[in-house]
Each structure stands twice: as C-alpha cells, then as structure tokens.
Fold these 3 entries.
Entry 1:
Amino acid sequence: MSTARAPFAPWDRRELPGVFGVEESARRIGNYRWTEMRLFEALGGWVATIPELDVKMVLGRHCYHHAWHAELWTKRLPELREMNVDRMTVPAGPEFEAFMAAVTEPEAPELTIEKLVGVYRVLIPRMIAAYTFHLNGTSTITDAPTIRSLKFALQDEHEDWRDGEMLLQSLLDTPENVERAARRQSDVERLVTVAGGITGPGSIGVQPVPEEATV
Amino acid sequence: MKRHLPESELARDERFRRNKIEDQIFDPRNVALADRDLGPAQMSVDRPAVAERSRSLMHGIFVGEIQALEGAGRTCFDFDETEAPFALKLDMARQCWDESRHVEISCKLAEHMGSDIGEYGESTFLYAAACNPDPVMRLCGVNRALEGLAIDVFSSMKAFGESTQDPVLTFCEDWMLADEVTHVKMGSDWLRRLTEHDLDRRERALDFQRTVDKVFSLGGFRGESEENPIQITRRFRELAGFSNEECDELAQIAEQAAADARQMVALAHASQS
C-alpha cells in the first residue's frame, strides 16, 4: 500500500507569503526587546515605591513576564542574521524613547494611578496591538519561530493588561481620581501617537497622523 | 525615577509600623528576659508562648519577603547593562516573581496562624543589604546572606510545622525553601562569574557578606546550638553552592554574634545594678 500523502494535511492552511522580510522582522523585534527591557526594569524599580500591597505583588509578577519576553527576543534576534543583539535593541525613535521616559517617570508613593495608567492603559495596549499585527502579518511557515514567541508574549500581555486594568478600576474611587487617570492617559497617549507606536510609524500597518505632528 | 532607593523611602500602607533593629536589640527588657532559664530556645510545641512566637516569626517572614521583593526589583532597575548583565537582571526579575508569591504565601499563612498584617512591627534591616551601590556586593548581601537566612528560617519553620502536625505550614515552607535554595545558588553562581577576573572584588564582596551575616544572626537568633531558635541548615546551603568551610565560617560568625549580644546584656546588667 502506498504511503505517499500530500505534504500538507487538508486542515493545515498555512501559507508562504508574509508582509515582513528578515530585516524588517529583526528591526521590529529589536524595538520589542528595547521596550520590554525598559518596562521590566521600571516595574522592578516601582515595587518599592508602591504602598498598595496587592499592586506591589502584581508588579513583582509582571516584572518577570516582561524580562522573559526580552529573553525570547534575545534568542530570536541572532536567528535573524543579527548576531549583535545590542545593536538592534533600540527604541523605534527619539519620540518613542521620550514616551517611555514619560511612562516610567512617576516615582512618589502617591502616584500609583499615574504609574498604572501609563503602563496598563497606554503602553500594554500598544504592545498587544504591535504584537498582534506582527503575528497576523508574518509568514506562518518561514517565520514560525517568531509566531511562537509572539503567542507566548501575547498571552502574558493580555493577562497582565487585565490584572492592571482591574487594579486601576479598584483605585478609581472618586471623581478626582477618574479625572487624574484620564488626564494621565491623554498625556502619554499623545506622546505614543506622535511616536507611531512600539515600532514607530506603521506599528500596526496604518499610521494615523496626529495634528501636532503635521504642524 | 531615581536610582538607589534608601530604606527610609520604602512605601507601605498605614497598617505597617516601622521599628529600628537597634531599638529591638538594646531594649532594656531584654535583660530580664535573658535571666529566665526556659531551656532550649528552638521552637517546639512544649515551649512557653510558642503560638505567639511562631506568629511573630511568620509576620517577620512576611515583611522580610516584601523587602526581598523590593530588593530584587531595585536590582533590575538600579544598574545598567555595563554594571549588571541582562542575564543577571533576568534572574532578579524571576526572583521578583518568586518573592511576590512568597509574600502571598506568608500573608495567607499569617492568617492561618491567627495573625494579621501590622500586628507586629517591621524593621527594614533586610532591605538595607539591598542598598549597596555595587551589584556584586548587593548580590552577596541579598542572594547569599538574606536568602541564606531565609533557607535557615524556612527550614526551621518547616520542622516546627512537622512537630505541630500542621500540614499547611509544612507544605508551604517546603515550597518556599525550594525557591530560596535557587536564589542562593543564583547568588553563588553570579558572584563567581562577575568576579572571575577580579579576586580582590570577590574578597571584598565576601567580607561584606560576613558583615551582613553577622547582623542577620541577630545576636543568637541563628546558630547551631540549642540556644538558637533558628538553625543553620547545612544540607540546603550546600545545595545552593556554599562549601563546607563557608558553613563552618557562618557558624562561627553566628557564635560571635551571640557572644557579642551576651556581652551587651552583661553590660546592661552592670549598668542597672
């Protein structure tokens, strides 16, 4: 009896085409690594500055998630012809660097809302968006190792976003605090919009042009 | 956010009360307490006030875990990659997660034992070991001295759980003990790697660890005799990279700390009479 079968089973619908070549995939991954590193360092540093015990413990857990994502990208970059991982570990541009500086700036113990809003209402949604765009756009056959890492990272990002959002909702107990959160979100959202997202303009394929950027 | 956060700036909610370790050690009531002869100091079911002592110790573990979490977190932030390589910071981030779980565990265990957050004071001398601006010194202070103390404490608490037939306490202490052995091993490995070509720096770091170990022996709290409530756990320390000689040296340091404390009590006696 013949054992010759079609190379792809009928249910395997993976295709060769993808929107990213090797260089573009590596560039994006370098931006991811830079962002994950700045984020895990800041979360680790914040733990000692946050008086709310539940928030302190959650940030301790999330600190490791982001460090581990940085490790995933550390391992992937040399597989994309980029042997010097540090050379590719850069922000998408000076505007994105300024955005991350603003996100990680709050220090005082009374600024827990500002810390959480910057990370969980602006930065992590942007990371989910950039990772999802990469996941959906890259070749499911040639770039499968990146897809696997993106799926691991996205699972954490979704769960961490939910943790952070629920902590925030529990802290927004007065109209003044709601106002604070909205103001903070608007301030940092404006910066990331100018930066174009985690990997710069085109982070999610389209690039809205903010009015201030066109002036 | 500034680098290197002093212990005075650790953020806590209003339930926590900060104590100074010096106030505890030089408390004049210690003289009268030292005069009592209650037999072996190790925690056991027939020891007077053992329930109170174990609750107090569990609260001490709880606040110690918070400080260990904060110390590991600060190491992720305080150093750039020229001072601390990414792999080290990745280990510290992992330690953050582990310490977060330990805070959760000890919080639930304290409740299980009938205690509550803030029932006892908190002294922040454990975090002080994490304030050293040299990452190698900090590693020795946190991962080898502080986490080493945690090995001894968890091992003693596990034995106490077994002696009181408390399966919840025994189970949890055993899990935390496994994590602490990993953390001490991380410290031992990184100390060797970072000082491979700088043996002077390694010696300075080990000197710093001896100083911290003496402080953490708390004048007889830890040691290898019946006088010491917390026993040095050689088996787990060896798993974590301590040599037999290092365990011997630690036992001597602990003995010296106990002798110093006895001398202070004698001086206090003399000044009162």
Entry 2:
Amino acid sequence: MTFTVNGSSLEATPRAGQVLRTFLRDHEHFEVKKGCDTGDCGACSVLVDGTAVHSCVYPAYRADGHEVTTVAGLGTPENLSPVQQHFVDAAGFQCGFCTAGMVVTASALEADADAGLPSGATGGEVRDLPRMLKGNLCRCTGYRAIGDAIAGIANVVSATLPTDGTDDTDGGAPHTHGHGHGGTRGPQGGTGGPHGGTAILERPLPTTTGIRSVGRSQKAPAGSRIVSGQEPYTLDIAVPGMLHLAVLRSPHSHARIVSIDTAAARALPGVVAVLTHADVPDTLFSSARHENRTDDPDDTLILDTVVRFAGQRVAFVVAESIGIAEAACRLLDVQYDVLPANFDPARARTPGIPVLHADKDAAASRIADPATNLVAEMRGEYGSIADGLANANVTVTGTWQTQRISASALETHGTIGWIDDDGRLVLRTSSQVPFLVQKELSRILELPIDRIRVYTARVGGGFGGKQEIQTEDLVALAVLKTGRPVQYEMTRTDELTVVPCRHPMTTTVTLGATAEGRLTAIDLTVLSDTGAYGNHGPGVMYHACGESISIYNAPNKRVNAECVYTNNIPSGAFRGYGLGQVIFAVESAMDELAHRLGMNPFDLRRLNAVTPADPLVVTHVEGDDLSFAGSYGFDQCLDLAQGALERGNGVAAPTGPEWSVGEGVAAAMIATIPPRGHFAEASITLGLDGVYALNFGTAEFGNGTTTVHSQIAAEALGTVPELLRIRQSDTDAVPYDTGAFGSAGTVVAGRAVLAAATALALKLRGAAESLTGILSAEWMLEPAGLRAGDRFIPLTEIAAAGSAAAGSAAAGSAAAGSAAAGSAAADSAVADADTAAGDGIGAPTLVTITEGVAAAAPVAGGITAVGTHAGDHRSIAFNVHAFRVAVNSATGEVRILQSVQSADAGYVMNPEQCRGQIEGGVAQGIGTSMYEETIVENGIVTTGVLRSYHLPQMADVPPTEIFFAETADELGPYGAKSMSESPFNPVAPALANAIRDAVGVRPYELPLSRDRVWRLLQGADLEPLDAPALPAD
Amino acid sequence: MVFTGTVDLNTVTDVTLARDRSDLQKLGSTVVPFAGGSALFGEPQVHLTGLVDLMTFGWAPLTVTAEGLEIAATCLLVDLSRFPAQPGWAAHHVLYECCTYLLGSFKVWNMGTVGGNICASLPAGPMTSLTAGLDATALIWRADGTDERMPVAEFVTGNKTNRLNPGDVLRSVTIPLASLQSRVASRKIALSPLGRSGLVLLGRRGADDTFVLTVSAGTVRPVQLRYPGPPDAQTLHDDVLAIDQWFTDPHGAADWRRTVSTVLAAEILEELA
C-alpha cells in the first residue's frame, strides 16, 4: 500500500487489525501520541485528506492512497505554523503530551470554520470551542491557555525587557480573567533568613543588559518542539531489535496461585521469555518511592504467589511483538485457590476479616499490625478535646467521604530498557523520580547502583502517579533475562484500573467554638483505604492530618487516624497527598460552624487563622524545620478572594424557580517541601564553545521547573534562557536528585541551580580579573561575554582560560567532582563569596546558601560549578478558593458562575506559568469534585475507559480569576514558594460550601455529581428504586 | 480483566472490503461487519479473526425518497449533521442535535456512522435515540439473503443487544416523511455539560396531532409513550414515572434518571404545545 504522510510517500502494509496510530508510530512518526486508544482524548489526532480523525480508532489500511498529516506536517520548530506559534505564545500547554492533538484539531477548525454546524452557521467553531474540543483532553492546563492559543492571545514575553521601560513582570499580556491584580514585583522580605545571608545574592539585580529572566513569563524552552511534535517523550524513540512486554493480571481480588502452566505460551513462535513468581527476586519492596525508603512498607514482590487485588500482576511475557506477547498471555494456564476478600475499610480490622499481609514481619516490613490489616496509625492529643468541647458554645460534627480518583496523566506509564555499550542496564522511563527508581532497583536486583542508569525524557504528566515503580522493575528483569531492548507500555485501562488511585478517606470532624467564633477544639478521625498494598499509605495519612488542622489555632486538638489494607486496588500518591481529602472535611465543618454562628465564613477563618506569632500544631508543636520564613500570606489570600467575590464578575444566574444561588469559600495550607530531607544537585559548565550546559536532576512533566531553572540560571549569568543547553532527570547528568514530588521542583532543585549559577558567575568574574587585572566587581555578565567599561572578554576566551588552568592545576577537580566534595569544602571553610572570587582562575570559588553550597572551578573543557541543596527547612504556602454557583433543584446541575483563587506563592518566578499551575490545579479540583470517580464493584474497577471515567473537558472548566498575595520567602529562590499541589486542595470544599449555601443542605460525599446533588434535595420523600446496574461502558 | 489487550486488533488477520452482498458470506461468530470503526477499534476484540468493511459498498449515505429519508447504515454522522433541510421538514433540526448528543467529538463524526451507532446498541447511542424517536424503520439484510424491516425501537433490544444474528447486516434506516414533517423537540442531560448522555428524550407531535415521547439513554432500550394528541402534564408525568427500564451506571443513577425524565418530558410537552 502507498500512504502519503506529511507529503512523503510511505510504502508499507499495515497488519489487518492495525490502527493508523500504531502504524504511524511503527514508522517513527512519534509525534502521534497515545492517550486512550478509545477515541476519547484526541492526543492521536491527525488529518486524513484534511479531515481530522482520531487515529487510534482509524483502520490503518483505510488510509491507503490518502494523505495523512500529523502535527509534524503542519510546521517545524524552525518554521512553525500560525496555530503552532499561537500555542507557544499563549503557553498553551504544560506537559505538552496532548498538544500534538490539540494543534491538529485547532488547525482543522481554522481550515473549515463551519464544520459540523447546520448550514448557514458559519464561523461558529471558535465560538463553540468547548464542543469542538470535547474530544481533546488536557489534564494539566485547565484549558484557559488553550483557548487563548486558539484565540491568538499571547501570554509569554521575551527575556529582553521592553525598551520603553514599561514593567511587564506580571506577564505582559492582558489577563482576561482577573489575573494581574496584585501581581508581585519582587522580594518584599529582608535580606538574610534565619539560616544565613543569601538573599543578597538572589535578588534580581538591576539589569545593565536589558535582560531580565526571573519574575517574567518566559516561554518553556521546549515550546517550539512540543507544538510541532518534535519533543520526544518516553517511548518516542526507535530502538532496533526491541521486544515487547505484556502482563497477565489477576481476575480475582484475593487468591493463592496454585500453578502457572507456561508451556503453551513459551511454545508460541516469537515468545522470548515468560516470567512468573518463580523467576523474580524474593525481595520485598514498595512501589512508592521516597527519599527515605523506610517511609513506605515493604509488602510487595515483583510477582507474588498471592494476589491481593483484581488486576495484580500474575506473570509477564516478552515477545517480538505486542500482539504475540498478548496472545502468549492468553495461553498462560493459571490455577488459583480463591480466598475470601474484604473491600470495606471500616471492617478491615474486625476479627474474622481476611488478613492480607499476615505473612509479613511487622518490624521488617514496617507495617503497624499485619494481623489486623493496619498499615499505619496516628493518634495524639494536644490539650484536651474534652475540655475544648466543654468550653464550646457551639459544636459541629460530621463525617465526609471522598472517592477514588485516578491521576490519569495523558501519557501512560512506560519504560524502554536496554544494555548499553558499557554493559549497564539503562531504563528510559516515565517517572517523577528517576534517582529513586535507580536506588530501589539496585536494591531489589542486587546490582551495584553504578550498573544502572535511569533517565526520563520529557514526561507526559504525573500528578503523583509517577512517584511509583510501575513498569521499570518488569522491564529491568526482561532486559537482564533476554539481553535485548524491551518496552513495556501501559494502556489507559491499566491506568484506570490497576495503577494506584487517590486514597479514599472517611473523615469525621468535630469542631467546638465560642459564641464569638474562636475555636476551642478540633477533633479529627480519619480512616484511609490503602487497598491491597501500603505504598504511600502512611505518608498520605500523616500529611492528610497535618496542614489541614495546623492552619487554625485551637487550644485543643486530637487526631485518630488509621490506614488499612483491603482487597481494593492500591491507593497511592495524588496531587495534595492526602490534604485534599481531609481539607474537604475540615473546611466543610468550618463552613457549617460559620452557618451555626451566623458568621461570615471569611471572618471565621481570619479569627482562627494561624499566624507567624502562633505555634504550628497538629497534635504537638511542629518541629522548627517548618516556619513561615517571612512570607505569610493567608490574610492577603482571604482578602483577595473575598474582594473578588464581592465585586462579582457580571455572570448572571439562570432564571427560574428551580435555580438557587450560593457562595462558598475554603482555605488550604501546605508545607513547601516534604519533611525529612529532599536533596538536589545541579551543575553548570561554561564550555569551550561559550555555551552554558545546565544539568539538574528534576524531571519535567508539565510542572514547568525546566523553565524556572533556566530562568534562574540565566538571571544569575546575565544571559537568556534560550542560550542554555539543558540536560536533566538523568542519573548520569548529576549525582543525585530526590525527585519531582512534594512540590519541591522550584524550591529545592531551583536553589541548587541558583547556587551553582551564582558560584559560576563569581568564578567568571574572578577569571576575568585574573586575565586583565581589572577587579572582578567591575565585570558584568552579558550573553556573549563579560564587560567592564569598554573592555569585553568573550565567554569562549574565559572558558579557554579555565580549561588551560585546569590542565595546570589539579585543584580544579574538587569542584567539578561530587557534591560531597563541595559540601565538605563548605563545612571546613565557609567562604565569603565576594572575597573567594578573587583567588585566580585555578582555585575553586565557593558559595554557601541556606542548606546548600556551590563550588565553581576550572575543568578540562571549561569552567564548572556544582550546587547542592538539602531542602530540610520548609516554608508554608496558602491558597483560598471561592465559588459562586447556581444549583438546579430539578436536575442537580451545578453551574459555576464565578471561580476565584488567591495564592500565596511568594515571589512569582514566572507569572504565566504559575497562573497555569493554579488553573490546572483548579481544573483537576473541579473534575474530581464534580465528575471523576473510580467505581469499584466487588473489587473490580468498572470505570476502565475515559468514557466512564470522566476527565474534565473544556466545557467543564469555567475561567478562574487568579490573584497572587504579595509575599517573598526567605527559603525559596528569589523569594519563591512552591505552587503545584496546593491550588487543588481548597477546590472541593469551596464548591461543596457554595452548594450548601445555595440549597441549604450540606453535601458529605464526593463527587458532587448531578445525581448526588439532586438526591440531597429529595430528603425523606425519596423512594428507593429497584433498578439494574449496568457495567460501565 | 485477565488480559484486556491493546489498541490494535492483533487477532484479526483478514479484512474483506465488501463490494457485493455475497462478500457478507464471510461473516460469522469470529468475523464481524463494521463501518466507521470508531466503536470496533475502541475496545479489545480478542475473539475476532476477521472483519468485513461495509464502507466499500459505497452506499449513498442519504437519499430523499417519497417515503422519507433513507439513511444508509454507513452514513457518516458528519454527513447527517450537515444534511440540508427539505421543504416542510419541521424536524430537520433534530438530525444535528442528536449528533451533538454523541460523546465523541466532531472528529468521531468524521468516521462514525449512523448504522454503527445503532448496532452498538448502547443505551446512550444518539442515533438510536434519533431514529427510534422518529419511528424510523430498519432494513436488515439477513444472512440467508432475505430482507427484513422492523421499527428501530424494536431493533434495539437491550444494553448492547439487538435483533441482528451472526451474518446479518443493518443496511439502512428510513425516517418516514410524516415524522420529518412533525414538530420535534429533544432534550439531553448528562452528569457533565457535554458528557456521555444520561438521558435523551425526543418528543414528536405529528400533523395528525399524534404525540410520541421516546425516552432513551436512561433506559436499557428506547421506550416510547404514544398518545393520539398531547397528553395533559400529569398524565405524561405519571406515565414517565411508570417506565420500568431505568438503570444505574457511571453516567447516572436510576432514580435520578427516572425523576429528571419527568422534568425533560414536561419541557418537551411545553415546547410542542
């Protein structure tokens, strides 16, 4: 057959049942992405003879003789199409995985503006964008920026300041949804925090070059590649001789595997290996990954003899094609001894209930009580709850339930592994934590850590779901077994049915308050269902009970929390890490208290808000690793949200007696870094070609940290981000990085980058002094070199001088070596940065920063600076969300009329990108509050495709007004705080509170779906209906 | 759950491009017909070894006849959505409206077919809602070479079940002219603004004043309430509540579907007053 793809002829014959998506990818058109393979998400959209189709459900042979156009055929990074350029200029993507399909679809709209509308209605497609884009799902952005892109609105600015002197530091573009009010202008706090004088080095300096990187809406470095389909994601490489892996999963929720007959599978031509529990290490581990591996219970084997949830791995096949691997899985004959199962967390600890991990040693596996399915517990009391309630004039109590939620990043989990030329195992994987994967695989496989390299390409979304080992262990085993390259790609159904979901929690909150509204008691009881394995269970439970109640002052607090095993699918990390579930309950209870007291809910929060003058208390006063670090913004957030709600937005409520209107607010607090250490290292080398090579460990999965890190480095080095050569998230690139989770990307790794860049800048100026005799303080850095008055030295000359000095001085290796060397040097000689710079080219330049250090020194090939940061002091950020909604009592429809979020992000490093993170968090909050639910019936997940698990579409997400508090933090770089998980956390309770205000009945259960809201209003008159339940489809 | 498979239909080794009715003799329990493919390729089909592609028949998608509008099973939704109105077709707007009730995007309209949607026989199939609601007749090509006609409302028998046997093919559906000349009102509701339909109701008031309400998407198969003239509001309300085929799935609870149907039915009654 003859196909034309992007103008080139392709002679090939697809397999009979092959779809166009896999056919195109087989021929290295990796720009065509897989999101769902059911025609729902649109990531695979292409044009066939100019007509847009979902290529995942388009029979490949049908394109014979036709012209196929992918996103790569619309334009190239060097020559973008207008639509592609608009997506760059609008910052119309985050992870970028959906972008290829978005761009193709948007291009089709432009080409044929009245498609799909009745005759006579022309030009309606852009007006009707929510419907035209309902088959294009984006999990990151919340769609506002995508709408901007299609409307041609630009949101990014260049690194060069406007020559007219106007200040565009809050983004430059008009912000149609209320952003721009209260944009920050720079650090407001003093120099020097409690941990050392560093801020002086970090304040954006007056620019002499007309260049300013931080605080401005720089575009993502990968932008033009993403919009043209040229940015490779995890599986977007051709590996010759690659095998494919398929997994057989358990149909039973609890069973002992009696036998697995692999003979028929092994006999199938094309099968290379079949692995069962007999072929894997018997080392227990946890699929969850943290800096401290002991945070999670060791209760998992790669393949076990007991299956504890439906969908657990039973065996896997490695074969020449995925079709053969699948066929071989169907030939595996497994005999099970089916065991009783328990799906009810409330009964998990009852005598006689099936015990899942009785075979584990409590201490060795770190399970609180294996005999009663108790993974972890948290119990403690501060003051006396009894006294607190006795002293209360008003008490409220209630029990709130949250549902299972799937992270569902658009890119499913996947890994490609091979043996490299040095005989090392290499894994290219879709992970937030490549270094932690490397560390744990080294332990499980008993391989020295330097025999494993783990790296990520750009990752297509995470949201916590990729803080897990889900594919890497299988691929590692398969590669070691076969000696050949192997790929394992999960399906969307895998993502929705076996990849860990958000922990469902049952939370009881009792509040006591005086008649004036001052809290006297907060009593919290939480039951968290971790499912069949304990990954993330303890950490999520602890975090859930932390900032959710330390946000308010109360003299008496109590927590009684349990995390238990059931035979449900495992729960895991999800944006907010437990806070979302418990904040839903606490903020609903606070709202109820305001109603009882007849008090404005904003005022109730103001009265009880923790302030820098108060201790942070959960069940005891928190350790001094956690502080406000000079950047308290809760008060501003409350004012900003209340002000916006009171101003209104002019959107009228629908008319009719069935509609009622209400307002609701909720607050959320979050520590900016996970506790007990989060480490990052970064290096920057000025090479002989005069180019800065920036290396860091953090993965980019739509978090935007690559943009921020490049802004930081560019700012410190007087250059523009586009001139940096970036290498990241590779265990070969830097010695270590804990990973991209716990919102740590900017505030930990960003500090390591800043330290390295600062040290390098000093070193370069010192080198210029050595070369010329002109004092280092006289030299200013510019993109191409250093200038002092009319003297100019090109970067190439400085690099050459450094390289020469390194050749004559062995001292240079100290700085370029491991971070340990740098740390040791810093410990022994805390150098003053400005004086250390003058020691000549050969000597290392040291810079100490809060909890970190950097050293710059010449190396063969240029000058290198290495920075590290330990991240063990943490700050606090706030978010407040408010809604005005209309509720239809006849149908349960909830219409969001106004959505407002205020955020305490510290110094905003990149206003457009930070706004995008908040909007994305709000969209995910709305999706999970109103629509998303992983439904489990007798342990079987029935919502296995995106048709039945409803990710938010453009039509579901209203615009949200974003406001930034004016704060600046002493810990984060330039005063920044993290802002990635936290915007999600207040959304659900704010929505529930608005519905309560509208209808007078409080919701206690998520999601707030139309049928649940409708049922709230039926009261006691509701007759039960005996109706069948159809399978999800 | 044991093994769901990936997107390609890897067990399928043969596709027949049908050009003549005799090509359908290949059909059987493991060889099935398909048109657009958006449903077939959208889920694992590990029991299949072969496919027969009906698109290559080249059937005229939409034909106006003296009887009404004949819609080939292979008619694309995009073609139906753009079909121009004919004189006197008061119901024309509902052709487009029902296309918008499909969860699939306009890109699915570009390959999804009317017949494929009806034969999938999902409760939320909007082409079933449309053609059942307009009292269309299905033409079935039986495996033995005979033809059979029946109302679409009877063709779909339950959730994913219909009157086709292995080897049979849906050839076309015909909407009678009287229906096209009727006044029609439709309502759709889902758990989200543009989500998978929880309910689709279609009301039709004919020139002879006949009033037909067709409830679908919330019932396992289309349910029709037929009156010689518009009923009074209470009668319609009570009759809708008396329907006993409601179901619960992720797109809505049965009790919600039942009660909200009365709301939508009342709106339709008022619109057609």
Entry 3:
Amino acid sequence: MPHTRHPATLLDLRKGEEAVLDRIDLPADISQRLMELGFLPGSRIAASFRAPGGDPRVFRVDGTEVALRCETAARLHLRPDSKKGAASPS
Amino acid sequence: MTTQDGLPALTGTPPGTNALPAAGPRPARVVAVVGPPNSGKSTLFNRLTGLRQKVANFPGVTVEQHLGKLRMEDAAELDIIDLPGVYSLTPRSEDEQVTHDVLMGRMPGVPKPDTILLILDVTNLGRHLVLAAPILALGLPTLVVLNMADELEKRGGEVEAEALAQRLGAPVALISAASGEGYDTVLQFLRGRIGIPRPMDLLPVLSDIPRCREWAARLGEAAKYQAPAPPVWTRRLDGVFLHPVAGPLTFLVVVVAVFQTIFSAATPLMDLVDQAVGASGAWLGAVLPAGVLRQLLVEGIWAGVGSVLVFLPQILLLFLFIGVLEDSGYLARAALIADRTMAKVGLQGKSFIPLLSAYACAVPAIMATRTIENKRDRIATILIAPFMTCSARLPVYTLIIAAFLPEKPLIGPFLGTRAAALLGLYLLGFVAAVATARVLKSSVLQSERTPFVLEMPPYRAPTFRGLGLRLLDRAKVFLRRAGTVILGMSIALWVLAHVPLKDGKSPQIAESFAGTIGRTVEPIIAPLGFNWKIGIGLVTSLAAREVIVGTLGTIYGIEGDETGASLQEALRHDLTPAGAVALLVFFAFAMQCMSTIAVVRRETGGWTWPIVQFTYMSVLAWVGAFVAFRIGTAFMA
C-alpha cells in the first residue's frame, strides 16, 4: 500500500508541494491581511523556499511569494486530499 | 492591450458612446498616487515630479507621503501626492490610515486630491485589482495605471486594457514607469483629455474580501488577462540567496564588501575633496584682506565646514549600496534571513528594514517603522534605531581610526585593520541595540508575538535614474546640514573662541568662552580620558554627531599650529590611544542628534520617549566610554 501523507496545514507542505487552503484559524484582522495577500479559502498555495533554519517559510500564492512564520503557517488549514506536487505520489 | 507598434493603448474615450457627459473630464489640480507596495508608485512619482522619492522593493518603504509638483507646458502646475503603499483602504496600519485620511481630505495641511492615479502591478493583477474597488468607490476621476507592461509582455502575459476600462468605468493605461513607455497617457489624463467610461460592473461590498477577489477575477477574465509566467530569474537567485548555507554566507559577504568598499574606494575621492577644500581655503586667505572677516571665513567656516564636507563621498557611497540592496529586492530576503534572529530579541523581520536604514540615518529609519503594525514592536524599534551606526558617525569614526590605527592588511586585500575596526564599531552599536531590545521587550514593551507576513518582490535591476535621484537627495540633505547646522555651529564656535577680548585682542582658546565651556564639562569627561578641547566638541556635537569633526577643525585651525599639523596629528597630541577608544565607544552609544530627537517626539507623540531614550543612551555612552578607557589604559600602559 503506497504511503500517502495528508498535510493538515501549510506547515506540513514540503517544498514544491501545493494544496488548497480551507480556512484560517487566526484573529480577524490578521486573517484579513492574509486574505488581501491572496491566502483565500479555496486558493491554491505552494510551498517554496525557506529561511535558513526553516523559519519563516515562503509560500507561493496567486503569482507572488509571501513569507510567513511557522507559527502562522500552522494556523492555515488545508482541504484534505487536495495535495499535489513534487513530493506526492498523488 | 498594446497597439501594433508596441505603444501602449489609450483607452476610455470612444466619443459619445460610454463617456459620461455630465462628469466630463476636467484638468487635474491635486493628484494622489495610490497603489499597493511594490507596484512602482514611487517610480511613477519620480517621473512625474523629478523630485526624489524612495524607490524600494520592500513593502512599505514609502511611509512618508511625498509631495511634488508637475509642470506641463500647456496646463497649470499640479500638486502630486505620493501615498504609502496599501493593499486596502481599511485603516489597520498607520500607512493605511494616512492613505485613507489623505484621500478623504482629512489630513491636515494636505489638500484634498481631486484626481487619483491608481497604480497596479499588471504582472500581479489578480491581487492588485482588488484595490480598485475601494478607490473607485471614492467617486473621484481615476486613471488605473497598469505598470510593468514590459515585464508582462516579456514573461508572456497579456491583458486587454480597453475591456478592463469598460468594466471598471475608469480609463486604463498600460505603461512601464521605469522605461517611460506609455507615460504620455498619464499626462494626457492629467490634462483632462481622457474621458471616463460608464462602469459595466457594480462595485463589490468592500468589507467582503473574498467577494472583492471574485469581482477582480471576473474583471480580469473579461479583460482576457493572462497572468505571466513566474519570474525565472527570481527563483534562480532565491535558490542561492535563500540557500541554507549559501544564503547566510552571501549575506555576510555583502555586508563585509560594503564596509571594505566604503573605506578603500572612498579614500581617493575624499582626498580630492580635502585638497579642494584646502586649496580654496588657502586661495581665500591669499585674496582677502587681513582682518577679522578673513579669520572667520578661513579659520572658522572653511576649516569647520570643510572638514565635514570631506565625508560626502563616503556617505554617498553608503547610500548607493543601501539603494542597490533595496531597489534590487535583496533587502526583503535579508529580512527573511534575519527574522529568526530578530525574533530572539522579541522583534520581527519587519524591524530589520528600519534598522538597516538606520545605518544610513536614524531619521528616515524611525519614519519607516510606521509599517510595523504592532505599537510596542514599533516603539521598541524606534528606541533602538539610533544605536545603529548612522552615516553621521562615519566622519567621527573615520577620523579617529585613521589617526590612531595604522592600515595593515588582515585577510589579504579583502579586509584591512581600519575596515575591521569600523566593522567592530558597527557590531558594537548592533549589540547595544539588540541588548536594549531584549530588555525592553521583556519588560515595559512586552507584547504578543505579531505574525510576520512579508511579500517577496521579484528581483529587479535598480535603475540609474532611481539611484541617481536618491543620491542627489542625500547629497542635498548633507549639504543643507553642512550649510545650516554645521555652518552655524562653526560660526558660533569661532566667535565663542575669540571672546572675551583681552586688551582688544582675542584670548588664547583656553581662556575664551569656548574654552570655559570645555573646562566646565571637563570634570565630567575627564574619567573618560577626554580633555576640555574634546569637551567643546562633545557639547557642539549634541546638535549633530559629525559637528565634532568641524569643531575640532575650527579649534585646531585657530590654534594655528606652525608645523601645519593635520587634524589627525592634532588629535594624537590630545588623546591617548585608550582615550581614542573611549571616544569611539562614546559616539557609538550617545544620542547626539537633534533631528533624531525631534522625529522620535513626533512619531511617539510626546516628550516621554525621547527623554527616556536620550537619558538612557547618554548614561550608556558615559559608562561604556569609562570602561573602555580603563581597560584600554590597563592594556596599553
């Protein structure tokens, strides 16, 4: 049986993988700001580069790259089974 | 949409069809330039006004609103206001507040704009177009400027500007602010020559971001928008600059290279200025009739102002480097690399940009902290910014290091002793800043950790125009200071050094008023290894750090050493090596800058923080210098 991972949040995405955002579990003003930058429920987000040490991480969303700290990325939940990308057997 | 000859299309005036007859176009008077960060707002503003305006890739560098004038041959002079970059008009950060207030005509002292240039990055239209909703809802004549048309084309994207204009109900111009392509359309619009089409789509409910996005997406579809391919070079460069090993290494190399160049490359230029100042001073002395006026001019003004002017090349070089780093987009990567370190002292990557600008000057740095949404983080950043080694310290450091430290290569041709000493002083200021931040953030300014959200702009080649305007402005600021603060201090000091008259003749410096001032502070600074002459310099440098160089120039100029000893030699005569180290440490910590005190008062809204800051830094400077002098004396004895 092929091993499949189910990334639950943005934090679980490996570099090159992408998935669909489900919801943002953060206070309203912060989630509004994230939405303005393209982190909208339903949008595709891909994991990109990381700062040395792995935090913050860069995510590709809507044609631009935005850096988030890991603690923030962990609050952005993904739609199950929406993962796609380099490291996934799909 | 581009026409066949590659020129950007002008849209909006199909006569009689869609143009509103009642709200017919009128020439503009007060124009606001609005747009998201990194949309090229400042580049357009530069083009319109020719005045300097910071162009940077970091979101939110344009914090101050910049005003300029545009003169067209056949129209009245226009006021152009450059507003901070924003993603929405909902006032959450101070940037958004400023933009909101100006557009509503609620900003005191700023005329209410009657026309808007909304500038959007067309390579990023899906996201940027959202801002059109609240801006168009204001009901002012608006030109939607789609910038970076050349990049869109190069990366295989496209958009039909006319279709977009019809849906938006606003004329749309596809331009490249950097190359000037399509710029004429903007001028035509400002002359009132472009009609405003009636909107086909209703504007979305502004507070509902997903709805706004849908609206923007629908409009993009209608305009046959093809997003461009991701910038290949940005990914390749990030592969290096954000590499776990190569990234931090590059960061380090960049920093060291900057310092080494500031020292080695600036020297011939500085020698040139020095010779020019010396030659013109000698010439003045020769042609003017002997008397008080000649003395004041040659000994007071020329020696005082001239000794500061010498540092212009070095300061411009530093600003050139910071400009290149900012405009290229590397600074955002540096913020990313620095975030973890900043988090350790309770700050965040966004504080890194103001702190890095503080290496040039604390005043713009403190203004740049407005992008930090968290108030406590912001105040902490303001309080530590003056510890960063600003360009005004450079003349002082350079003078003392050059006087006391012989130049020897340390690592081949890459790093010499003097550059290393300078680097050490930069490090000292940085350590003081970090330690202070830690103390503040774990006590009075404790706050919840704010999320770090930072856009990574694509790398772009800095333009000569942008860098040139920036350097010109820095040169003007520096020369203005030399012409006002330093000139005034030089004259005042010269006068104080020549009174009270004794038997109708000027006294020895030691017996003059200036000498009295120096002797009054001497008991306080004697434990640091400074004599009364240095004391005079410390007092005058309360106005601005670099004034001490001019002051010492004036003092030694008056003393008129027969041997023609240079300022460096004179210093060696007055300071022990341990005293020199103490003086360096003193300048690393002390807050000697009226402009910084004024800007801190303005940005924190009262006298409390500037007074706390000044006291803290002065005490730290004294204690630091005392310790340095003691240790230095013990070691060098």
